[in-house]
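> run fold Phosphodiesterase
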Amino acid sequence: MKHWLVAMSIAGLLVGPMISYAADQQQGASNVSTPRHGQDMESVRAQFGEPQRQIPAVGEPPITRWVYGQFTVYFEFDKVIHSVQHHS
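> ok
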């Protein structure tokens, strides 16, 4: 039983820093402003302009995507549920 605890502790020491490093890289990758969760389509359009591409709603509930130069916005009905920055 003790060998298992030692092995798990060593694994945590080896993997933990790698996970933290990856999270730090992702957070610091870009300072691009994106729409906030809960914003409606009109306020997104007013703040960020017309999207480069609008992908029609699919599914139930309907999910619509607006693609901008540096990010994509996902809407459920007319509210933002997620914004994703594009990799450069």
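The first strand starts at residue 53 and ends at 58.
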